[in-house]
Amino acid sequence: MNASPKLIVLGVTGSIAAHKAVDLTSLLVRQGCDVRVVMTSDALRFLTPLPFKTLSRHPVVTDLYDESEGWQPTHIRWADEADLLLIAPATANVIAKLAHGLADDALSCIALALKPEARLLIAPAMNGKMWQHPATRENVRILTERGAQFAGPDTGLLSCGYEGIGRLEPVESVAKQALELLGVKRPVPSTPRTKSQAKAKGPH
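-> structure tokens emitted (204 positions)
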């Protein structure tokens, strides 16, 4: 008998890099993972749930009170079922919320209710000065001490016009780290879209 697929809850937050989470979803599904996507209200300003719904073959949670089936709140059920909570891209705001236990939307509630044995992987994307600010550095330290892991951020041209640290880590690298945390040993292929983006070195 084949083992049940690993369940990844993918949190997508309000960054210009949110569109890259579509490629990330595709990569993880192709590696045999069961991916459930939760989008913050700010993420919805950058893209719609449709590509995530199509690629994951699951409804996308966009509100704390989204209830797709059954009596149990969706955010609690997903927190109970998840093997990994992957937040990509993760803004400075959501990192701060995670560090201080704030729970005012579906994603932060899932994070706070996550079962102890589940893993947490955070892929930041933000302006370099925001990433290097003492408040953000302290929040990263707090989360790391609690067992969270970080993928990136990468360096390059940022959407704000600066060049430096703050880009979302390449999605292949994020997917590889996620699979390693889950004990899944499969090579992660590049996608045509991410190859072209890497060549262009466009903003994160």
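The chain is about 40% helix and 20% strand.
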